[in-house]
Amino acid sequence: MKQHYKDLIAWQKAMDLVAEVYLATREFPTEERYGLVSQLRRAAVSIPSNIAEGQGRLTTGEFRHFLGQARGSLCEVETQLLIAHKLGFLADVQPILLRLAEVGRILNGLISSLATSN
Question: Taking a C-beta distance cutoff of 8 angstroms, is the pair 51, 8 a contact?
Answer without folding.
Answer: yes
